[in-house]
Amino acid sequence: MIQKLKGTKDLLPDQSYKWQILEKKLNKVLENYNFKEIRVPVFEYTELFQRGVGETTDVVQKEMYTFEDKGGRSITLRPEGTAGVIRAYIENGMSSLPSPTKLWYNMGMYRYENVQKGRLREFHQIGAEIIGTESYLADVEIILLANSIFDALNIPKIKLNLNSIGCPKCREKYQKILKEFIGKNLNNYCDTCKSRFEKNPMRILDCKESKCKELNANAPKMIDYLCDDCKEHFENVKRMLREFCIDFKIDTNIVRGLDYYTKTVFEYIDENTGLAILAGGRYDGLVNQLGGQSTPAIGFATGVERLVEVFEQYNNLDDKIPDLYILSSGMEENKKAIEISEYLRKQNHIVEKDLCDRSFNAQMKYANKVRAKNLLVIGENEIKTGLAKIKNMTTGDEKEIKLDCSQIHNYLMA
Ligand code: HAM
């Protein structure tokens, strides 16, 4: 038998209803913040991610699903959403829309990762981007939005870690100092770090190798080298978050795995697993880097698989069950069952009926298995008299009812 690929998951009905509950709640929060949905292609030119995410990142160097299509183009399955969204923003002239533009998405992502708990090769992100403002107010709004998502999901206290990684101006000075520090021990770093030393020394701080992590422990911190503008921006963000009692911790080790970030970066970490549930930051240079006019932006994405796992820990999530099962047998009886079920479904009731020409007994078994709340039996006699029994399966109460759509609707509403 052909099996699914490592790092992928089938989402079966016993899980998918939880995703639906979560997605509905998130859609509502995003709508309340006036974000609009965008959907972009699952594959893009490889160059988009090389330029957007960064040549020296793990994502681009090690994790992309890249292939040549039949036309000889280099294509990549999106490893993250921001680059594609910004490509679409530029390509569709969205800068002419009221600015800032607030977009959200819910899309599958593909990364050739070392598969572990919470780390998949196909995973889903719900992301939000505010494009067109450099104000700290957008940073505050994006963090308030993230918090509102956790609130809407009834998830208590996910730790927010915050850092600022400055702008190209303050980074120039910092990178020199960082290179001096790393340079002293460069021989002891892993080969990937060595290869990143000249091109992008800050990437070395994101290395997962334990020997590199140890060497990096005392590295100079970007936050100590922020220019006045970046410093003021970060102070304003922190001040406003405190005003609204948003708990956060400054974590100067956050560098993020993607190169486009500037200034504020953040991660919400699940303390039980140590995994980031939601993460993002400001990326003031990306639009320009991808060929658009210089446009500051900020956003985040949450890993839906990880978020659902936490969501179900804190909530009793029950799937919907049929309001009514209609038992019927025979042409006239089946016709009546179809008529009633179609009517009730249009009135928003969940209705199930026989589709297999089964015996009453077998239909009853099925109705029990799907935990139908009520049962309506339509046999020869019921067609003749126009009266039928409806049974509440929880209480066991039985009632005679007219075989009339609106009467049954009223019964189900009561
Ligand atoms: P990221 O930190 O790479 O950022 O991913 C965001 C979230 O996606 C993570 O916090 C995690 O919950 C989830 N995630 C990432 N990789 C995996 C994986 N292999 N398996 C399961 N879940 C995973 C971004 O992708 C940025 N585009 C976020 C952003 C939007 N920044 C600004 N705007």
Apparent shape = elongated
Averaged pLDDT, please? 96
Write the CATH architecture name of the largest domain. Answer: 2-Layer Sandwich
CATH topology of the largest domain: BirA Bifunctional Protein, domain 2
Biggest pleated-sheet summary: 8 strands, mixed
Helix content: 25-40%
Kindly summarize this structure in a few lines:
The protein is an alpha+beta fold and 414 residues long. The protein has 15 helices and 16 strands.
Describe this structure in words.
It is a single chain. This protein is α+β, with helices and mostly antiparallel strands. The chain has two domains: 13-167 and 227-314, BirA Bifunctional Protein, domain 2 (2-Layer Sandwich), CATH 3.30.930.10; 324-413, 3-Layer(aba) Sandwich (Rossmann fold). Helices cover 39% and strands 21% of the residues. An eight-stranded mixed beta sheet has the order 1-5-6-11-10-9-7-8. A five-stranded mixed beta sheet has the order 13-12-14-15-16, sandwiched between helices. A hairpin with a 5-residue loop joins strand 3 and strand 4 (74-77). Helix 1 runs antiparallel to helix 5 (136-152), helix 5 packs parallel to helix 9 (228-243) and helix 12 (331-346) crosses helix 15 (405-413). The longest helix has 20 residues, at 13-32. The chain is elongated. Histidyl-adenosine monophosphate (HAM) binds at residues 80-82, 111, 113, 118-120, 123, 125, 127, 129, 257-258, 276-281, 283, 299-303, 305-306. Histidyl-adenosine monophosphate binds at residues 80-82, 111, 113, 118-120, 123, 125, 127, 129, 257-258, 276-281, 283, 299-303, 305-306.
